[in-house]
Amino acid sequence: MGINNTQTAYSFGQLGSLYLADTNEATPPAGKVFVAITILEDAKFQGLTADNDTAGSGLEYIGTSASYSSNGGDAIPNTVSFQAGLTVYGRWTSVNLADGKVIAYIGD
After folding, report:
1. Dihedral sign, CA of 44, 72, 27, 24?
2. In this structure, which topology does domain 17-107 adopt according to CATH?
3. HSE-up of 61 (CA within 13 Å, CB side)?
């Protein structure tokens, strides 16, 4: 018998999702973030805004901004193509596609 932990569920995208197939910027509802992005059709990101250092945690996530990482990580250029079938996990406050189709999952 398993334990039902809603906090864990909310951290893994159980608060909904968005299908993105255009180049408009998408943002999650207020107080939420995108916690996973599944690539449906090869995709490039024009903007991927990481939710870094949440509540002073020191955690960092990939993004397209050159200043996103204090630990030496590189920004993702909009020329990098992510292949269909890949799921990337992290915390993002906005997603803006340059090309492709994705599902962005919402969590806490």
Report:
1. negative
2. Jelly Rolls (2.60.120)
3. 20
